[in-house]
Amino acid sequence: MKAYFRTEASNAVGMGHLMRCMALAQILSDQYIKCSFIVPPESIPFCLGRHDWDFSLIPLQEELPTIDEYRWFSENIDLTSDDILVLDSYKFTGQYISSMAQLPASLVLFDDCNDRDKLEVDVVINSAGGADSLGYEVTAPDAHYCLGEQYRLLRREFLTELPQPLPDRNSLTIVMGGTDPQGLSLRILQELSQQEFYGPVRLVTTSNNPQLEEIKLFTTNTLLSVQLVIDCQDLATIFSHSRLTLSAAGSSQFELLAMHCPTVLLVVADNQFNAAQASENQGWCRVFDVRETKNMVNVVSGLTQLWQNESKLQSMMKAAQQHADTKGNERILDTIARLDSERLDGR
After folding, report:
1. CATH code of the domain containing 312
2. Residue 289 has pLDDT above 60, yes or no
3. Are 204 and 235 part of one and the same domain?
4. Of 17, 144, 241, 260, which is the active-site residue?
5. Does the predicted TM-score (pTM) go above 0.85?
6. Which residue numbers delimit the Glycosyl transferase family 28 C-terminal domain (predicted)?
7. Which residue of 138, 172, 236, 287 has the fewest C-beta atoms within 10 A of its own C-beta?
8. What is the CATH number of the domain that holds 35?
9. What pLDDT is recorded for position 214?
């Protein structure tokens, strides 16, 4: 068996798709399955910028329309019925997925909202709470389902790092994704300064953030105590020492949960809403929906109130401990292994 990942990362779409594919690739590699990533040329620097990158890279033809990808795969990738092809991008329509289903490999899809009509895939992965109520039995009736929080993928670093007790945590951590496509990091720092936040702040971002120079300039001219962490390669350690974290509500929320982090999640895209609401219902985080407005006044006010409320942070951390589940990797691996068994059985 070989595994191929068709995904993307860019300043516009961020790194969320790439990172969850990378988590799956790590666990498949641990089973001696060769993993290759098929990405647009613009995504390659985002892959190679990772210190823990250990996978083959196959660049797509420059500016290849998705409608032509089936032909490109047929001509350039030696897929067999033993292989799996993992798809993760919001640009992949139901029509695109149906065309890729004609390839001989088993098809695995990362999904968030079940809003693409018919899904001709072998496995659907949606780790959001409540994913099993989104109707995949209608859109993907023949698929295996990895739905809900018991199927949350974690990268290796989050399986080996030990969460610290609250008294040993001392920073407000801000992480708005690998590229911060909404440009929220600088807005948050400015509002923290305006409201005279007094605690130590740690901003995690990357060299691909288009506002990085403005952020650097701001941090040198503010009274905030700000540590700027660029291209972080040990995010688990950062999270395990975070007293309170402000994060975009992408897949990093599952990593925050694994590190028992009291968290404020910002919903910045439609696909994030369901998972964020499910997480808030568990009691370990608070959610702000900023899809319509980028005003950070209420967000920072809420942060400050939580920062000062030791008992609330303790209760949020306790809720995170109760709901953290680090066995999702194993469950997804078992599901993929069943595909191989079914193929050998002739089903």
Report:
1. 3.40.50.2000
2. yes
3. yes
4. 17
5. no
6. 174-331
7. 138
8. 3.40.50.11190
9. 95
Question: Per residue in 57-109, pLDDT tens?
Answer: 999 988 888 889 999 999 999 999 999 999 999 899 999 999 999 999 999 99
Give the domain extent around 44.
2-154+327-344
Say yes or no: 83 and 199 in one domain: no
Which of 61, 55, 243 minimizes the C-alpha distance to 155?
A: 55
- Residue 212's pLDDT band, with cuts at 50, 70 and 90, is very high
- Torsion sign across C-alpha atoms 47, 48, 52, 58: positive
Q: Based on the domain organization, do 148 and 174 belong to the same domain?
A: no
**Is 17 an active-site residue?**
yes
Average pLDDT of the residues in 283-309: 94
Annotated binding residues: 155, 255
> Starting from the edge strand earliest in sequence, which strands make up the sheet with 285-289, in order?
225-230, 200-205, 171-175, 242-248, 263-267, 285-289
Closest to 2 in 3D by CA, of 100, 105, 108, 123: 105
Annotated binding site for substrate: 155, 255
State yes or no: pLDDT of 341 exceeds 90: no
- Regarding whether 214 and 88 lie in a shared domain, the answer is no
pLDDT: which is higher, 183 or 123? 123
- pLDDT tens for residues 124-140? 999 887 899 999 999 99
Residue 153 buriedness (CB in 10 A; 0-12 / 13-18 / 19+): buried
**What's the number of domains the chain is made of?**
2
- Rounded to whole angstroms, the Cα distance separating 64 from 76 reads 13
- Let me know whether 225 and 280 are in one domain: yes
Q: 59 and 33 in one domain?
A: yes
The span from the CA of 31 to the CA of 183, in Å, is 39
